From TrEMBL:
GO molecular function, one term: GTPase activity
Nucleotide-binding found in the keyword field: yes
Full-sequence portion shown in this chain: 88 to 553 of 558
The name this protein goes by in its record: Eukaryotic release factor 3
The UniProt record lists the keyword Electron transport: no
Annotated Tr-type G domain residues: 31-258
Organism: Cavenderia fasciculata (Slime mold)
Annotated keywords: GTP-binding, Nucleotide-binding
Family, per entry: Belongs to the TRAFAC class translation factor GTPase superfamily. Classic translation factor GTPase family. EF-Tu/EF-1A subfamily.
Any one GO BP annotation for this protein: cellular response to stress
Length: 466
């Protein structure tokens, strides 16, 4: 294509001059990659535990951790891990990268891990949703401390987070019964058993299967007992299970849609030595160095110039991987919220009207009823778009999926409803049966999530356009 002045970046590199990364001389990391998210009531110990993991896996040394801890206190930040993550990204921010998500990485001999939306951030609750939506495993942290467990469960965020995790599609939960070292608990088996029984009841109600969907670990983020190493028998003689990290390492490999069409929703982008570099999680398919792709919406042709993460380069990226992808052929301005890297042979549909099932959880006070003409902000992957409900098709029994009532005039909190939604501008979306990750969305109003949804149909026209 002809080169114009526009194709030259600030360093004088022509965007078409980007060289494909040389990977002739490196060994690809074959370890499985897992995305995890910490959820649970405030003060349960999520930051302490994620911090501990970073320390125990050598991602940060105790001296640096103490520095961040001190700075976090001075800056009235909620936790050191937040400070740490923001700090790591400071360099990238200098390169013009905007930081929207806090992510931390660690690794063991068996696997590589990304902690999504590391907690401690003030905006954690809305973030919990976008982070959890990409997680393979959620770690539900519960305080066993007298009074705290009770507050977290009765009207607290413990069960709410578990319920959201289920709706978002998290298949596996590890329930960490934390603060077992607390004097009021002192590794009491009775206290632990009581918590296990109560939480099991709640999780069953959320739709998790006690036989395979969740497991419990007693732990202390404070003393590190059962975080990396197993708790010592002299501290806790009655627990013979594995530690948190041992349990994560031992989880059976997750089913990955490697043969699906390639989809990478772009979380953020920046310029690295003149190369437009994007970050994102591969939701389906595989990506290969040198591959030609489309940036959607808009079908902008791009070529994959580099693939890497914090620890290594890749020739091929598989589903579930969080990667930095250098792109040849585009300008940074082309990338916006909602952009997706897509396979050319099977491009992602771009749609402006959908049929969806929506679970109503928290409608705003002034509009308690969900009706046609209801307006909200639609969030799917990184896309944000205004939307309006065109019509209600039927109320749905969430347990059976059966239609309860056709064409209801309204629906209320606690109900699920199939409806038609019109988006102000078209968004990259797929049907739940094709790609659940790209079908999930939330409806929000200012700062509140009022509903969760999944796209059931993108319509015949959109399907034919693929
Ligand atoms: P988050 O809001 O879930 O991220 O909770 P934090 O990690 O900030 O912890 C909240 C408070 O509980 C802090 O004062 C921690 O020091 C304390 N804490 C965290 N884990 C433990 C633990 O295992 N034992 C005890 N005794 N205190 C803990």
């Amino acid at each position: 294509s002809p080169t114009t002045d526009d194709d030259v970046d600030e360093l004088g590199n022509k965007i078409d001059d980007v060289v494909i990364q040389d990977v002739s001389n490196f060994k690809e990391d074959q370890r499985e990659h897992l995305n995890i998210v910490f959820i649970g009531h405030v003060d349960a110990g999520k930051s302490t535990i994620s911090g501990n993991i970073m320390l125990l896996t050598g991602q940060v040394d105790s001296h640096t951790m103490a520095k961040y801890e001190r700075e976090a206190k001075e800056n009235h930040r909620e936790s050191w891990i937040f400070a740490y993550i923001m700090d790591t990204n400071e360099e990238e921010r200098a390169k013009g990268k905007t930081v929207e998500v806090g992510r931390a990485h660690f690794e063991t001999e068996k696997k590589r891990y990304t902690i999504l939306d590391a907690p401690g951030h003030k905006a954690y609750v809305p973030n919990m949703i976008s982070g959890a939506a990409q997680a393979d495993v959620a770690i539900l942290v519960i305080s066993s401390k007298k009074g705290e467990f009770e507050a977290g469960v009765d009207g607290g965020q413990t069960i709410e987070h578990a319920r959201l995790a289920k709706m978002i599609g998290i298949k596996h939960l590890i329930v960490l019964v934390n603060k077992m070292d607390e004097p009021t608990v002192a590794w009491s088996k009775e206290r632990y058993d009581d918590i296990v029984e109560k939480i099991t009841g709640h999780l069953k109600k959320c739709g998790f299967n006690p036989k395979k969907d969740f497991q419990f670990i007693p732990a202390s983020g404070f003393t590190s007992a059962n975080i990396k190493d197993r708790v010592k028998p002299e501290v806790c003689p009655w627990f013979d299970g594995d530690s948190l990290m041992g349990t994560l390492d031992a989880l059976a490999p997750f089913e990955r849609n490697d043969s699906g069409a390639l989809r990478v929703p772009i979380i953020t982008s920046y310029k690295d030595r003149g190369v437009v570099t994007v970050m994102g999680k591969i939701e389906s398919g595989t990506i290969t160095l040198g591959q030609s792709l489309w940036l959607m919406p808009g079908r902008t042709p791009v070529q994959v110039a580099s693939l890497s993460n914090e620890t290594c380069n890749f020739r091929t990226g598989r589903t579930g991987e969080n990667l930095r992808i250098g792109l040849k052929g585009i300008d940074e301005d082309t990338i916006r919220a909602g952009s997706i890297l897509s396979e050319i042979q099977r491009p992602v549909p771009v749609v402006s009207e959908i049929e969806a099932i929506v679970a109503l959880i928290d409608l705003p006070k002034e509009k308690q009823l969900f009706t046609s003409n209801f307006e909200a902000v639609f969030h799917a992957h990184t896309a944000v778009e205004e939307c309006i409900v065109k019509s209600l098709v039927a109320t749905i029994d969430m347990k059976t999926g059966q239609e309860i009532k056709k064409k209801p005039t309204f629906a209320k909190n606690g109900e699920s409803v199939k409806c038609r939604i019109v988006l102000n501008r078209a968004v990259c979306l797929e049907e739940f049966t094709t790609n659940p990750q790209l079908s999930r969305f939330t409806l929000r109003d200012s700062n509140k999530t009022m509903a969760f949804g999944k796209v059931t149909s993108i319509g015949k026209k959109a399907r034919e356009a693929i």
